[in-house]
Design a protein that fits this description.
This protein is mainly alpha-helical. Helix content is about 65%, strand content about 5%. It has one domain. Helix 3 packs across helix 4. It is globular, with a radius of gyration of 14 Å.
Length: about 130
């Protein structure tokens, strides 16, 4: 199975199944794939998520927190792509552009925490519902 399909399977599972899969380890290939989705290099994405890129380079699978953060970025990118009418490149641009609704932060910069990711998702959902923020 290719990495895109693997990540899609991860995110479409039930929450408890996702927990188990994260605990077993997310394939390291997800790091490079997700970095390219959001228009970053692997090292830049790792630093943005407060992960040590040198540690990640030595792994074959991402450990719990690492895998969870990479999957979080993937899930948010999927939602942003929906918001952008199915255009991944527009979602990429949106995730890397400061947003006034996020206090002038780029959405990608808030994804190192669950609370930040929730704020980004709130903005995406508000846009999808036509709510001006």
């Amino acid at each position: 199975m290719n990495i895109a399909a693997t990540l899609a399977a991860f995110t479409s599972d039930t929450p408890l199944a996702q927990v188990e899969r994260i605990r077993r380890g997310v394939p390291i290939r997800a790091w490079a794939f997700v970095a390219s989705l959001v228009g970053m290099g692997k090292h830049e994405l790792a630093q943005t998520l407060k992960l040590n890129p040198r540690t990640l380079q030595r792994r074959t699978t991402l450990h719990n927190e690492e895998g969870e953060k990479i999957l979080r970025v993937f899930r948010v990118h999927m939602e942003a792509t929906e918001m952008c009418r199915g255009e991944p490149s527009e979602a990429q641009q949106w995730m890397n552009t400061p947003a006034s609704a996020l206090g002038g932060n780029r959405p990608i910069d808030l994804l190192d925490t669950d609370v930040g990711a929730q704020q980004v998702l709130n903005v995406i959902r508000a846009v999808n519902w036509g709510v001006y923020l």
